[in-house]
Amino acid sequence: MSEQRTHDMYPSMVVEDSQNVTRTIEPITIGRQLKAIRTANKLTLEEASKRTGLARSTLSKIENEQISPTFTVMQKLAHGLNIELPQLFTKPNNIRATGRRDITKIAQGRTHLTSTYEHELLATELSNKKMMPYKSRVHARSFDDFGEWVRHQGEEFMLVLEGEIQLLTEFYEPASLKTGDSVYYDATMGHLVVSTSETDALILWVTAD
Amino acid sequence: MSEQRTHDMYPSMVVEDSQNVTRTIEPITIGRQLKAIRTANKLTLEEASKRTGLARSTLSKIENEQISPTFTVMQKLAHGLNIELPQLFTKPNNIRATGRRDITKIAQGRTHLTSTYEHELLATELSNKKMMPYKSRVHARSFDDFGEWVRHQGEEFMLVLEGEIQLLTEFYEPASLKTGDSVYYDATMGHLVVSTSETDALILWVTAD
DNA sequence: AAAAAAAGTTTCCTATAGGAAACTTTTTTA
DNA sequence: TAAAAAAGTTTCCTATAGGAAACTTTTTTT
Fold first, then answer.
1. Average pLDDT, chain A
2. Do B181 and A17 touch (CB under 8 A)?
3. A26-35, A81-90, B55-64: which range is least confident on average?
4. Among the four A130, B25, B103, B122, which has the fewest Cβ within 10 Å?
């Protein structure tokens, strides 16, 4: 059979540097994805064949992009390999379309109201990813700069990139963090960050629902 | 053609209330889902045909579960109807139980040394968290220091804290990242990091399954 | 380093997906 | 409410997916 590519479904990987220069790199294919999953589980085609009920040759052809599997086959793959179906054709970023909230709006809302944070969203080219990373310059100096607690769905990981901050929370004593320190918490609890160094602190945030 | 169902991906859900009244909620099939999407957009088969580039008859057969569409066709559907591909076979309201959990923990490292990386796990006191953050000192200088690809479930966000690195991946060209640069990718793809600066680089990793 | 075994690919065939057009059903209009 | 138009289904055919087995390549064993 002639060499052909039946499908190219992945968005490109986005690399983002500190000057906001983004580079876009090559996409992935369903065949590669399947092969990656299979080899990650250290399965041979024969073993994968037994688990999925599909012929060895069929798996080989899918992996080599010689055929486009039917939905029925995709289901057998997902079930047999014990993965969620979208993993077969989705970069991590496409998987969970449900339950995502738009953090941009939250961030902009805050900034607009009180000018407490300056948010820089990262990896914005990738939609529906499980985690949302962003850097924030912290202008706020006290609770009063906010007026009320910030809270939202999900969990949050935070690391201080520059300066020193205090993490004020609804249920805990204020926590002082220096450059390099990090913290992990439930974002449904009221929380906010204030700079305690002379210059505004810079922090990295990663949230997941 | 005889009446047949090519695929039933969800079992019927039975809801039972306190009076023992049971309601059966229909499973989602790709055909039902497609029809729902098409009609919600007030499109005829003819119009949907034009948008997707698929024959009217093909759409009809898919909607009536007479055939199992190939992945290529599913892509055309998603693209033509302007939806995310998983919408074709996913229930819109997948509820994910998120128990309110143990909250704030200031990260304090627990180190783990290998010849290639020196990992400092963060927030180790919190179990069941959605994200796993850790800092790594990168000793490795080339692929050969590893011998094989690293891969695992989930998505990964990475930010360079000190030095310069190259992110080597199975499917992309090597990506060079300097201090402050970040990248987000699918960790099922083979990947590894090597230092390219004189001193070993320090990076932050956050993964989520 | 040759032989054997295992893993992967290709061939060849059958089953089924997808398209063109005929046919049927539903909706609109006179 | 009959005729016309539009929407949807089925038929029939061609293109392609999927399986069995032959073949090739890679890895292991002696």
1. 71
2. yes
3. A26-35
4. B25
